[in-house]
Amino acid sequence: MENPHAQRQAVLLERILKNASTCTEVIIELNHCVEEILRANAPVKIAADLATKYRKNVQYNLEATKQEMS
């Protein structure tokens, strides 16, 4: 005679394994989508970095010009 608890545990374990497998597949797909987004945003990041450097250079030159005039 089989143990009913063992049967129930086997069914539950099977469900857990199936859900874990599905979860893994979804996470892999999510990672793929994030990689695509990062690739698509690369030019925007470059432009933002250039704008930040330009702003810093302008600020530095403005401060240097103020000191020369004083």
From TrEMBL:
User: Where in the cell?
Assistant: Chromosome, Centromere, Kinetochore; Cytoplasm, Cytoskeleton, Spindle; Nucleus
Protein name per its UniProtKB record = DASH complex subunit DAD4
TM ranges:
none
Q: Which keywords does this chain's UniProt record carry?
A: Cell cycle, Cell division, Centromere, Chromosome, Cytoplasm, Cytoskeleton, Kinetochore, Microtubule, Mitosis, Nucleus
Family membership, please give it. Belongs to the DASH complex DAD4 family.
One CC-aspect GO term: microtubule
The record ties this protein, via Pfam families, to: DASH_Dad4
Q: Which GO terms describe its biological process?
A: attachment of spindle microtubules to kinetochore; cell division
Please report the organism this UniProt entry assigns to the protein: Pisolithus microcarpus 441
PANTHER family associated with the record: DASH COMPLEX SUBUNIT DAD4
